[in-house]
Amino acid sequence: MARGFNKVILMGNLAKDPQIRYTASKQAVASFSVAVNRSWKGKNGELQESVDFIPVVVWGPLAENCERYLSKGRPVLVEGRIQVRSYDDKTGQKRWVTEVVAGDITFLPSSGGGKREDRPSSRGDYEVQSSGGGYGGGEPRSFRDDFGGDGDFPMDISEMGPSADDDETDIPF
User: Can you give the pTM of this predicted structure?
Assistant: First the structure.
């Protein structure tokens, strides 16, 4: 059997505040919807627009950080996988749910509002929240925090010239 590939990347705005709950083993689970706009030209050439509301589930410390730092309208980038599951409702009918299980969340800068008063993003950085393997971890950080904060990302090699040790004949390809 061929190996499968299941990867989703969404960028949009939160349609509602994250709802957090805990499993019996005290594992945090947050759920929210991401509103993703799309546009196309219709048959008559006019611009058409639509919005898809994609359900997202987040586990562990990442779920707690989403509940703490995200709010309705906040722009976000979600990386994860699609999951389809079923359950029996109260009447005994089988229900199917399709959702994105997030592995990484990037908190994008917003123009205002939200729950970020304790850590403003006035520098315009992207704030990253990575799950580190699917179950959350760490506080949000910026790319500048990771790479020294001096504006070189990760370093400026434009001033570096060829060295005397460079010999193009040693390249193996």
Answer: 0.63
